[in-house]
Design goal:
This protein has 14 helices and eleven strands. It is α/β, with parallel strands linked by helices. It is globular and about 70 Å long.
């Protein structure tokens, strides 16, 4: 299937049915977090890495494990600590004394879903090792480069309330995350459901819905979603407003923004809008698809100034103003 080929309605219907079934299976052990479940599933089909931010105990790890079950993918978890080494992630060369040769012991990065738990606790060398895997889908061990799985996602978590013993993620690495999802506490009804389910929680009850072959096929399906020039212009204006707000009569934002979103932000906003359209059962993108994904795509790409922090302004508030100001096509 090429990008110019149209998607028939049967393909969309079949895809939607699979997505709904996947959500139902995940809901067997995960309560609420609808936005998170959507983003986890969407990331599979756009080859996107996800940064999950939230306080401890709100099912970040559980959600990733549920995704691995429903997608029938290999899953590995790394607990990031200050003493972690790059070789603990990618692997290393081991010298064999008997035959005087080196052999490669591959690290946990050789998987489908890599959970980097508390990613901001590891030093810069570890971050740079992970960066190659996230962006290039390959790692270098010794003098050789090794390709990772065709379906490979890094799902990283970080705790926003504890900064002692942490290393701020480099901006270049943050930009490699497709989505940044802010997880919140469950509401009263959801928390009651958590307590009702906790004794019955069994990951083996989750049935697989997708496999690696189907995921790769649907990645091509996403590329075939139609995007009109009007929507492309809308996307570019949103991103441009994050860099030059004064051009869009948003002078009040200028002192709050140190750097706007990168071109990768525009590219990922387009990809995310496409997969959102498919989730909604359409073969074309509309403005609502763009709005639905803008916060999770851009919140980590807008670098705030000290003035913004002093005024208690976060990137979500800036994105709200941009979306409310840019004319919807």
């Amino acid at each position: 299937m090429t990008e110019k080929q149209k998607i028939n309605s049967e393909e969309i219907k079949k895809f939607q049915e699979k997505i709904q079934k996947a959500k139902k299976e995940i809901s067997k052990i995960l309560v609420g977090q609808e936005n998170l479940v959507n983003r986890l599933l969407q990331a599979l089909f756009v080859r996107g890495n996800i940064l999950l931010e939230g306080v401890p105990g709100i099912a970040k790890t559980t959600s990733v494990l549920a995704l691995s079950k429903v997608a029938d993918l290999d899953f590995k978890r790394i607990q990031f600590t200050p003493d972690l080494l790059p070789s603990d992630i990618i692997g290393n060369e081991i010298f064999n004394m008997e035959d005087k040769s080196f052999s490669v012991k591959k690290g946990p990065v050789f998987t489908n879903l890599l959970l980097a738990d508390e990613i901001n606790r590891a030093p810069a060398k570890v971050q740079s090792a992970l960066l190659e895997a996230m962006q290039e889908r390959q790692v270098t061990i010794g003098q050789k480069t090794y390709k990772l799985s065709k379906v490979f996602l890094t799902l990283a978590t970080q705790n926003p309330i504890e900064q002692e013993g942490t290393y701020p993620l480099p901006e270049a690495q943050i930009d490699r995350f497709f989505f940044k999802v802010d997880m919140t506490y469950p509401n009263l009804e959801e928390e009651k459901m958590v307590l009702d389910k906790i004794e019955k929680q069994d990951f083996d009850k989750i049935e697989k819905v997708f496999n690696e072959k189907e995921i790769l096929k649907n990645q091509k399906l996403v590329k075939s979603v139609y995007v009109d020039d009007v929507i492309i212009k809308y996307i570019t204006k949103i991103v441009d407003a994050s860099r030059s707000p004064e051009k869009y009569h948003l002078e009040n934002l200028k002192n709050w923004i140190l750097f706007g979103a990168s071109p990768r932000g525009s590219i990922n906003l387009l990809k995310a809008a496409k997969i959102n359209a498919l989730f909604e059962g359409r073969d074309y993108v509309n403005a609502d698809d763009v709005k639905a994904v803008t916060h999770d795509i851009l919140r980590h790409r807008i670098i705030l100034s000290f003035e913004a922090e002093a005024d208690d302004i976060n990137s979500d508030k800036i994105i709200d103003e941009i979306l409310n100001t840019i004319q919807t096509p």
